[in-house]
Amino acid sequence: RKEVEQDPGPFNVPEGATVAFNCTYSNSASQSFFWYRQDCRKEPKLLMSVYSSGNEDGRFTAQLNRASQYISLLIRDSKLSDSATYLCVVNKSPNAGGTSYGKLTFGQGTILTVHP
Amino acid sequence: GAVVSQHPSRVICKSGTSVKIECRSLDFQATTMFWYRQFPKQSLMLMATSNEGSKATYEQGVEKDKFLINHASLTLSTLTVTSAHPEDSSFYICSASREARGAGETQYFGPGTRLLVL
After folding, report:
1. Does residue B105 surpass a pLDDT of 70?
2. Do B74 and B52 meet the contact criterion of CB atoms below 8 Å apart?
């Protein structure tokens, strides 16, 4: 089982649509969670961190359910510029030697295309 | 602030040659730098973590003698792909963090280096 699994996608939605991405992680000791977006042939860029209480940033809402080890991202009123690959990212908790602290594990990504 | 650059952005080389990729933190001191690799239609995979002044920690399955990492200063880490082969063709991305081992600190990603080995 992959450490971080996402909806396979791709998602193809019209402008103005609401779209939701799901993600599950296998390591229950994971401590930090993020959504990144990656445009074609570019580096990933942090979209938002994800907190247990849920958090919102404009049209984007992220949710975390630690009990289910589930993360979600909701995009409302989709724009053409939202077209990208969305990466679910988990930061592992430190192991005994502390070597995994700060180690990001990326999901395979979900491709979103917003069309006119 | 928190800008990370990589050089070169793209490189094409012949099989058997070595390629050096530089990662620089331009406006902050990066105690920890990370090197990732991304094959087409796949996600980023961490290759190694390097802390300034110490040996890099490699992920399982990554050959340390093939992917040489040097983090000699707080603003520069280099990745050298030795004796590159076509299967090493990939998108190499570095990230930098201010904290030791990247503990709890956001990682800032460089723009990536696209390597094509013929």
Report:
1. no
2. yes
B46 and A45: CB-CB below 8 Å? no
CB contact under 8 A, B43 and A94: no
* Partner-chain residue, chosen from A102, A108, A109, that has the shortest CB–CB distance to B102: A102
Contacts of A32 in chain B (CB under 8 A): 104
Distance CA A106, CA B100 (A): 21
How many residue contacts between A and B have a Cβ separation below 8 Å?
54
Q: What is the per-residue pLDDT across A23-39, written as a single tens digit (0 to 9) for each? A: 999 988 888 899 999 99
Angstrom distance (rounded) from CA A60 to CA B51: 34
Q: Which residue has the higher pLDDT, A101 or A68?
A: A68
